[in-house]
Structure formats: structure tokens, C-alpha cells
Amino acid sequence: MGRLGLVFVPALLFALFQPFLDTNRDVAVYVKLPDGFYISTPVRKYNPDWAIAFYEGTVKHIYFVAETKGTLDSMKLNHITPVEQAKIDCARAHFKALNDENVVYDVVSDYQTLLNAVMK
């Protein structure tokens, strides 16, 4: 897959994910995290995609940091490189160490996966 595919795919996933955030009544506020927001890891800087806050009482976990990864089977977008997987593993450990039971980090492929994660 050429460079164009690597640029296009995240934009496509964000375009599919964002409308659900816009229309869900349980979402208080969300932000697509800028490149300047990162977690230092032993392998490289890691930039999660989203920070999402839910209204208290509607879900179990109020604050959620999400990494969106594709699962559009026809396009085979669900491949995560070993370096990306290492960064994701470091992010999981980072948020687990900081966790106060309200903040959750997870990799999600779509909005339903996000909802399942915040209801755990």
C-alpha cells in the first residue's frame, strides 16, 4: 500500500467515528488529540487519537482515551506494526499506572467497541 493509503486511512476512520461522538447524548465533550499530545515510550512517542468525556451516571468510565484502528475487512486495515503494538502496550501500562478508576484507555475499531469498553 502506498503512502496515500497511510494518509487516507486515518482520515477515513476518523470520518466514520466522529459522527457517533457528535450524536451520542452520553458524550459530554470529545477532542481529537493534537500531535503535540503524546506519551513517551521506550520505542517512540505515542499519540492517542481521542480524549472523550461522558456524562457521569450514564457509563461506568467517565473519561476515555481512545486509539482508533481500522477493521474494514475489505481494505485489510487492521494490521498493527510491532512498533505500534509496543507503543499501545506502553500506553496501556501508562494509563493503568495513572488510573483512578474513571480513566480508561483502549484501542477501538468503531463506536460500538468504544461503548462496550466504557460499560465494562
Describe the protein in words.
The chain is an alpha+beta fold and 120 residues long. It has one domain. Helices cover 39% and strands 22% of the residues. The chain contains 3 helices and 6 strands, in the order αβββββαβα. The strands form 2 sheets. A 4-stranded mixed β-sheet has the order 1-4-5-6, with helices on both faces. The chain has a two-stranded antiparallel ribbon with strand order 2-3. It is globular and about 40 Å long.
Give the topology, please.
Blueprint: H1 3-23, E1 27-32, E2 39-40, E3 45-46, E4 50-54, E5 63-68, H2 82-98, E6 103-108, H3 111-119
Parallel strand pairs: 5-6
Antiparallel strand pairs: 1-4, 2-3, 4-5
Brief summary:
The protein has 120 residues and is α+β, with helices and mostly antiparallel strands. It has helices spanning 3-23, 82-98, 111-119, and strands at residues 27-32, 39-40, 45-46, 50-54, 63-68, 103-108. The termini are far apart.
Task: List the main descriptive attributes of the protein structure presented here.
single chain, 120 residues, alpha+beta, two-stranded antiparallel sheet, disordered N terminus
N to C succession of SSEs:
HEEEEEHEH
Rg measurement, Å: 14 Å
Low-confidence stretches: 1-9, 71-77
Mean pLDDT: 74
Q: Biggest sheet: strands side by side, in what order?
A: 1-4-5-6
Number of strands: 6
Helix content: 25-40%
Q: What overall form do the CA principal axes indicate?
A: globular
| Separation of the first and last Cα atoms | 36 Å
Fraction of residues in β-strands? 15-25%
Helix segment count?
3
The largest β sheet comes out as: 4 strands, mixed
Derived from helix and strand composition plus strand pairing, the structural class reads alpha+beta
Number of domains: 1
